[in-house]
Structures are given as structure tokens and as C-alpha cells.
Design the sequence.
């Protein structure tokens, strides 16, 4: 199969719908193909994409992108043409660029449209792609872009910290905001309610009973059965997109490493990849290999932690203790060889912060062999134990249709029959030289998500062996050239939760002007609402843990 | 069952096995914490953890305190599900504006001695996130703090040390 072999059909179908799509500088957001549309065609483009069976990978807007990105654009759009003599930011931008990323068969298209700042409206894509519901609402809350025809006009990321007519990502909104007093609780959020005899509500959170991030869950239940779950997130919104503005590349990498602490390597890698694409930086092979080693270590550590926690949620503490033991040993080795137990700040623009000592690969190889030996009997028990089978099989089932319509990736998608993995389907180095085996699960229940995670641990161990065996010699960092003002880049990395997409635009002096990290949790949180339906309330913790969406990663 | 017994017996007790320097220190710190807990509270210390806006890195390390290497509960320290059951609040993250009121309410719900521990660099001084339209920054900008445990995130041993400091600190 050659790359982009569906693309001509996509263009033909757009043409059938009388949509004008300009490719412009099509490779600006490589590996994605960029297409510039008229804002009014935004909804129809989604219709065509949905008809082709594409997956929506996220939508975001850039309020400051007055200049044409890249500086070498030739798409002939009259709006906001670049003024070469004028640096970005020296005059207020008069338009907002809206982006949508779609994927099919491992190839990506980024749609781009401009809306005027004083009337920022374009059709919603949510009716065709329900997974972007909250991304569009997030985009509206932060930039003011109105998605007409959106089925849900309620606020999402905004609670009470700023007013409905203020938009934090606009240039005229100060990073410090206008807060003068304590921010009240968002008490009047209009939750959807279900009425009926015997129906009752259970509000949970934002402060939960366990050691877990804050969020609110509103259950409607009848007896034990969940009739509806509605999530209310945004509690850990920290203004990441706003405080990224003005950072240098190293500062952005540090911030990206804290979008979601459990995915620090993957998010930092995606951000660095985006910056490196934008700045034209060739990362040395050894650094890429080391990044992959860290990313696989991160995947293993998180899966071990979650496997134990999932089993613990159904009172099988044995697995929690055993997995916790293995995870702790793994983390201590990360501390010893990569400078940090979670490998935070180890991925830096242009490479990695730590090189392995000559003896380290041997230590790592021994560790990997020891872990494989330790997990095999453990996974054997987890995979086939009556008390676990009883609680996990058929529990929290996400249908393939739901997973596909929401755009789930990672173990949630894989367990429901969607084997997509960026490492295999759109491989970035060093994965272009490695074989990542596809997942074959289809059941979509908690047990399937457990099996996917166990398979991924073993798969990552295989990859680690290969990465160590082929680890190139040489430098671990390369200087990052100062990116031109307006330069944009896309990062696409498979984190342990699934596909991470990161968009970066540079402003003047090589400073960041726009940063948007899209965690896979944006699509798995809505999946949790669907898979819990018909299950009993006491099974919510295990269902939630099996999905384990990142609150911080989606609240931003 | 036989497989589980085989695994459990085969692994043995990792908590006490082959103590290295780090394990010796853990033992020392843990025992000291226990002494303070008994002196101050005459019982175990109940901790309510509150994530007020963290990136979840701190939560991972707090979870690690319960793994068999640290086995926090053997020192009389344990995590409880409600602030009303807690002697101490262990708070992570910069306090997001959206969590400000929830944190204040949790604090109000906590009975004396109400020891407030800010865990992690963000909770201590705002960290990477600082103060912004969305973040109040350090925990002490919202509620009074007794002890700070810096680190991004603090390693489990740092957390244990911090808990010791919390108990040793003179009460206001």
C-alpha cells in the first residue's frame, strides 16, 4: 500500500461537493498533507471525510496566526497575506486560523480555514465526528470561535475563572487574567438530567476518594444500573496553551513534559518533534533511539501500574502488589540511567538530555530479560483467573462502532478492534526501522483492555531489545536552528495512551506563539461515558481505570 | 491458587530483602515518622490527598508509597477517602482557579490538627505553571501550608521525609 492512495479520491469528492481546496504549501505540516478551505465549507469537508471513513484527530485554532505560516505560502488566499517586512505580532491579527486533523490508513490531512476575528464562525464538524464535540467547545471557550450547528452549546473548559465573552488565547487577553477574588465553584453547570420513578443522581468529585486527579462525574442510576454518566472536566485547566506563548524551545519542552505527567516522555517528544519540523532540525539517530527507549519504558511502567490498579479495583490485590514491585524497580532504573524516575525533562529540543554510559545497555538488557521472566507467570495468572474473569469479561464494553465514531486510539481503540498505532501506521524514526505488531483484540470490554496492555508490555520489551541491539553511536543532541517567525510544525507520537498530536507555531525570535498538545484522552473520556452504560455503579472504578483518561492532558 | 502461592512465596518479602543504603534510610525515616505520629497523635496519621491541579506526576509517586518497597502503612501512615477522616492534607499541583473553591472546602472539612503539606514543586511555588488566569500558583496562596516537599515530582523517599517534617514542625 502506498502512502496517501486515498487522497485523490478525497479531493475528487470535495470537488463533487463544490468545495474549493487549495493545497498551497502542502508539506508545511508534514507528515500531514495541508489543505486550505473556505470557512463556509468546513462542515461539508467533514461530511466528505466521514464518508470516506476518516478518523478525526482533533481541532484547534490559532488566534495570532495573522501571517501566512511558513512564509512561503502561495495559496492565493486574500485574507491575512504575509507582510514580509512586518514581524508577527506587531499589529493586531484580524483573523483566526482554524485547523482540523484527519487520518486514514496512517496518512494525515490537516484542514485549515480562516475566520475573521470580528465574526469567527464556521460550521461544526461534531455532527459528523462526535469525538470532537469537546475539542470544539474547548476551542470556543479559549479562542471565541463559534462552531455553528454544534449540538451542545454549553461551556466545557471554562468554569468561572473568566467570563463568557473573554477568550484567554486572544492576544488582548493578558496571561495573568482579570482575577480579583476567589473563583467560585461552577455550581450552575446545566447537567443533562433524567427524570423518572426510581431514577437518582450520584454526584462524584471534583475531589475524589482515591489518589487521583480531580473531575466531576454525574451518574443517573436506577437501582445499581447506570442509566447515564456525564463527565464534567476542566478542573485542572492550567492555561498551558496560554503560558506556552513566549517560551523558548527548551521551555516549551519542559512545559510539554508536564501536560500529563504519566506521558511526560511522549508529550515532550511530540512537542520537540513539532518544533524540530518547524525549525528544520535533524535529530541525531542515537537521540531518536534513546527517545524511543524512554517512550517504551514509559509505556511499560504505566501499563504495569494500571494492570495492578485494575485488578485491585476488583479486589485482586495480589496483582497490585506484584505489578507495583516491578514498576518500582523499573522506575529506579530510569532514575539511575535516565536521570529521573519518570524520565521528565529527558527529551529536549534537538535530542535527549542524557546519554547512556557504555555499560548501561547491558544493564538495560538484563532488566528487560528479568522483567519478561517476571511478567510471564504474572500475566498468565491475570489472563486466566476465575475471580478476574468474573468481574472483567463483558464489563464496560465499548463497541467498535463507538470507538470508531469517537476516534479512540491506544489501548481503548485497540481493545475495540481498531489496531491503529502511530508507530506502525505513520512511523516516525526510529519506528520506521522496527516492526510494531498489530493488536488483534475485538471484545472491547475491560478484559480486552487488560489483554491489550499485557500484550503491549511484551511488545515494548521486544522493541526495547531491538532498540538496544541497533542503538547507533554518535551525538545525542543537535543544535536547533532558530525557527522563522510563522514557522509551523506538527508532532505525531504514539504515547502509551495512544496518538498524541502537537501543533506548534513560532513567533519572533524563535519564541513559541502557539502550542496545542492533543492528548488521546480527548477521545477516550467520551468513550467512558458510553462504555459504562448498563453497567452497575460499583463497576465504575474498574471501568474508569481500564480507560484511565488523563484529566490534566485534556484540561490543559 | 497454586500459581499465586508459587508467585508470592517465590518473590518473598521485598520490603525487607537485601537492604541497600536507600532501604536503610527508608527504615530509619519510617521509624522516626512512626515515633512522631505516636508522640503527637497517639495513633496513626490519616492523610487525605488532594490534587489541586497537578500534571499527575506527583500522584504517581504518592501511589508508589504504597508499593511493597515503601509500604507506607507499616509506619502508621495511611490515605483516607474523606477530608473529614484526615489529620493531614497532602496537596499537589499549582492550585488551578477551577479547583480553588473545592480546595478551600476540603480544607474547611478537615478537622484539627489539619496539617497541610504541599507536595511537589508546583504546590510549593507554582512550578512550571506559576500564577496565571487559570492558576493560583502555590498552595499557600490559597490556604496556609505547614510543610513543603519540593521535587518534580518528589520521589517517594522525599515524600516520607516531608511527612516526618510535618509531624516534627511546631504547631501554630
Sequence:
Amino acid at each position: 500500500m502506498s502512502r496517501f492512495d486515498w487522497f485523490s479520491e478525497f479531493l475528487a469528492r470535495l470537488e463533487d461537493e463544490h468545495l474549493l481546496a487549495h493545497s498551497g504549501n502542502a508539506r508545511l505540516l508534514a507528515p500531514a498533507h495541508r489543505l486550505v478551505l473556505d470557512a463556509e465549507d468546513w462542515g461539508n469537508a467533514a461530511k466528505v471525510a466521514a464518508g470516506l471513513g476518516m478518523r478525526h484527530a482533533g481541532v484547534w485554532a490559532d488566534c495570532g496566526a495573522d501571517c501566512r505560516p511558513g512564509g512561503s505560502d502561495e495559496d492565493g488566499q486574500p485574507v491575512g497575506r504575509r507582510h514580509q517586512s512586518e514581524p508577527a505580532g506587531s499589529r493586531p491579527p484580524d483573523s483566526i486560523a482554524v485547523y482540523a486533523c484527519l487520518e486514514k490508513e496512517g496518512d494525515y490531512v490537516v484542514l485549515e480555514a480562516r475566520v475573521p476575528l470580528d465574526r469567527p464562525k464556521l460550521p461544526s464538524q461534531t455532527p459528523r465526528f462526535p469525538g470532537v464535540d469537546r475539542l470544539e467547545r474547548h476551542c470556543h471557550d479559549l479562542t471565541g470561535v463559534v462552531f455553528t450547528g454544534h449540538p451542545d452549546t454549553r461551556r466545557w473548559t471554562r468554569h468561572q475563572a473568566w467570563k463568557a465573552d473573554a477568550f484567554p488565547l486572544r492576544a488582548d487577553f493578558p496571561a495573568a487574567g482579570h482575577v480579583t477574588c476567589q473563583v467560585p465553584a461552577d455550581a450552575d453547570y446545566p447537567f443533562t438530567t433524567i427524570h423518572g420513578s426510581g431514577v437518582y443522581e450520584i454526584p462524584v468529585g471534583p475531589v475524589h476518594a482515591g489518589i487521583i486527579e480531580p473531575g466531576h462525574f454525574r451518574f443517573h442510576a436506577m437501582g445499581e444500573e447506570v442509566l447515564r454518566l456525564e463527565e464534567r472536566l476542566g478542573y485542572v485547566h492550567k492555561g498551558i496553551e496560554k503560558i506556552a506563548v513566549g517560551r523558548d524551545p527548551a521551555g516549551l519542552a519542559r512545559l510539554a513534559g508536564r501536560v500529563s505527567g504519566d506521558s511526560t516522555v511522549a508529550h515532550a517528544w511530540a512537542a520537540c518533534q513539532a518544533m524540530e519540523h518547524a525549525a528544520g532540525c535533524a535529530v541525531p539517530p542515537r537521540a531518536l533511539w534513546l527517545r524511543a527507549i524512554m517512550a517504551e519504558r514509559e509505556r511499560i511502567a504505566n501499563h504495569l501500574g494500571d494492570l495492578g490498579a485494575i485488578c485491585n479495583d476488583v479486589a485482586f490485590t495480589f496483582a497490585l502488589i506484584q505489578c507495583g514491585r516491578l514498576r518500582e524497580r523499573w522506575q529506579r532504573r530510569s532514575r539511575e540511567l535516565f536521570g529521573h524516575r519518570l524520565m521528565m525533562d529527558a527529551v529536549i529540543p534537538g535530542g535527549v538530555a542524557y546519554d547512556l554510559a557504555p555499560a548501561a545497555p547491558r544493564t538495560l538488557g538484563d532488566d528487560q530479560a528479568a522483567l519478561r521472566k517476571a511478567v510471564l507467570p504474572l500475566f498468565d495468572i491475570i489472563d486466566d483467573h476465575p475471580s478476574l474473569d468474573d468481574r472483567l469479561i463483558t464489563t464496560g464494553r465499548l463497541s467498535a462502532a463507538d470507538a470508531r465514531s469517537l476516534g479512540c486510539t491506544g489501548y481503548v481503540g485497540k481493545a475495540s478492534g481498531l489496531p491503529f498505532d502511530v508507530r506502525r501506521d505513520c512511523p516516525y524514526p526510529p519506528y520506521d526501522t522496527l516492526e510494531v505488531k498489530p493488536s488483534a483484540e475485538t471484545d472491547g470490554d475491560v478484559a480486552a483492555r487488560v489483554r491489550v496492555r499485557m500484550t503491549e508490555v511484551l511488545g515494548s520489551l521486544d522493541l526495547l531489545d531491538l532498540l538496544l541491539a541497533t542503538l547507533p553511536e554518535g551525538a545525542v543532541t543537535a543544535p536547533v536552528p532558530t525557527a522563522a517567525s510563522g514557522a509551523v510544525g506538527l508532532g505525531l507520537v504514539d504515547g502509551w495512551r495512544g496518538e498524541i498530536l502537537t501543533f506548534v507555531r513560532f513567533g519572533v525570535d524563535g519564541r513559541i506563539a502557539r502550542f496545542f498538545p492533543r492528548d488521546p484522552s480527548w477521545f477516550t473520556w467520551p468513550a467512558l461515558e458510553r462504555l459504562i452504560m448498563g453497567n452497575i455503579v460499583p463497576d465504575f472504578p474498574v471501568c474508569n481505570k481500564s480507560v484511565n483518561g488523563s484529566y490534566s492532558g485534556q484540561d490543559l | 491458587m497454586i500459581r499465586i502461592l508459587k508467585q508470592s512465596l517465590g518473590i518473598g518479602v521485598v520490603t525487607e530483602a537485601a537492604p541497600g543504603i536507600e532501604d536503610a534510610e527508608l527504615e530509619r525515616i519510617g521509624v522516626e515518622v512512626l515515633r512522631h505520629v505516636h508522640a503527637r497523635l497517639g495513633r496513626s496519621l490519616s492523610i487525605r490527598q488532594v490534587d489541586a491541579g497537578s500534571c499527575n506526576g506527583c500522584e504517581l509517586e504518592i501511589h508508589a508509597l504504597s508499593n511493597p518497597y515503601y509500604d507506607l502503612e507499616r509506619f502508621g501512615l495511611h490515605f483516607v477517602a474523606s477530608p473529614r477522616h484526615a489529620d493531614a492534607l497532602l496537596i499537589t499541583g499549582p492550585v488551578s482557579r477551577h479547583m480553588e473553591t473545592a480546595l478551600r472546602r476540603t480544607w474547611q472539612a478537615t478537622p484539627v490538627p489539619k496539617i497541610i503539606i504541599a507536595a511537589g514543586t508546583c504546590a510549593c511555588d507554582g512550578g512550571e505553571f506559576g500564577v496565571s488566569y487559570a492558576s493560583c500558583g502555590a498552595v499557600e496562596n490559597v490556604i496556609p501550608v505547614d510543610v513543603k516537599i519540593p521535587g518534580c515530582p518528589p520521589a517517594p523517599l522525599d515524600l516520607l521525609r516531608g511527612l516526618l517534617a510535618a509531624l516534627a514542625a511546631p504547631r501554630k
About this structure: The first helix of chain A runs from residue 7 to 16.
